[in-house]
Amino acid sequence: MPSSTVHLLRHGEVYNPAGVLYGRLPDFHLSELGRQMANTVASHFAQRALDGARVVLLAASPLTRAQETAEPSAKVLNLVVRTEPRIIEAENHFEGLKVTPRELLKPKHWPYLVNPLRPSWGEPYEEQAARVLDAARDAARRAAELGGDGAEAILVAHQLPIWMARLKAEGRPLPHDPRKRECTLASLTSLTIDTLTGAVTAVRYTEPAARLLPGAATTPGA
């Protein structure tokens, strides 16, 4: 069974002193801590390469924070960062706002809160999972073309779309409590994918930057 591993890498911490839900807004850069996270992940992949891993493909969401997270890994692996629009952050009605209980009480938001299972405030969970898994399958096949059986790819993306892809791959329900997502800043959700059928045969989760998480932003999607 020929396979490739696709590492879904969540971006590092973002500089966001106003605490808004920045979603797909442009020009939200990594914080200094976020840059440390990106460098730590790059060191992780550099060591993997030294140990024999063949990481042959690197792509990132079009958003600034994902591109900046990818840069250190591109340097150590001598790869070009491709842009993959299918792994962009989810659409969200509350983009640009600081989401507080007081804000949610405003009548203008009520139509967007009627169905948390879809969810009604943004891009449907099923659509997020589908687009990320499609991108991962294509990356797995391309990695195999470039590096042969067992080659690896990195896709730098965002918490919610990554979590949706993982839940879908594991056959779990997509509606969830955002506080229980297992997808910290600069974490890796690694999918082993059969390059012939596109089936996800294994899922592994790791936190290369775990030592930098204490004190980092904890807001879902931050």
From TrEMBL:
<dbReference type="InterPro" id="IPR013078">
    <property type="entry name" value="His_Pase_superF_clade-1"/>
</dbReference>
<dbReference type="InterPro" id="IPR029033">
    <property type="entry name" value="His_PPase_superfam"/>
</dbReference>
<dbReference type="Pfam" id="PF00300">
    <property type="entry name" value="His_Phos_1"/>
</dbReference>
<dbReference type="GO" id="GO:0016791">
    <property type="term" value="F:phosphatase activity"/>
</dbReference>
<dbReference type="GO" id="GO:0005737">
    <property type="term" value="C:cytoplasm"/>
</dbReference>
<protein>
    <submittedName>
        <fullName>Phosphoglycerate mutase family protein</fullName>
    </submittedName>
</protein>
<dbReference type="InterPro" id="IPR050275">
    <property type="entry name" value="PGM_Phosphatase"/>
</dbReference>
